[in-house]
Prior knowledge:
The chain has helices spanning 14-26, 37-46, 65-74, 92-99, 113-125; strands at residues 6-10, 30-34, 53-56, 83-87, 105-108. It is of the alpha/beta class. The chain has a single domain (6-121), classed as Rossmann fold, CATH 3.40.50. Strands 2-1-3-4-5 form a five-stranded parallel beta sheet. Helix 1 (14-26) crosses helix 5 (113-125) and helix 2 runs parallel beside helix 3. It is globular and about 35 Å long. It starts with 5 loop residues before the first strand and ends in a 9-residue tail after the last helix.
Amino acid sequence: MECGGLVYVCDDTEQIRRLIRLNLELEGYEVEEVADGQELLERLDRTEQLPGVITLDAQMMPRDGWWAIARIRADARLAHIPVVMVTASVQQQDRDQAQGSGLDAFVSKPFDPEQLIEIVRGFMADGRGHAPAP
């Protein structure tokens, strides 16, 4: 079943970006890849077509996922976009930080691609994966 919609995948590991891209594209999603939080924010600033969902790693250089989510939530143009953190950082302090950060979902690596697809599909289906009406 094809779903459709644009998803940004932000991770500093090319193999992880490729794995997420492949699985989402098989479901009919369009995928844009970025390698760190700085590149993500620069891409979001330059585009008119915002993604319906962003997947984001926590640990990246030079700008990590925590830096990126803070800026996304502080920007009125971007704040509505669901953000799913896909990370190997699974200590309790990471989960606590995730709860207070404005993240919409937290997925631990290694992850089940079907679980991630279901999360993305859910955000797209409930209308959160689309820009609010002006």
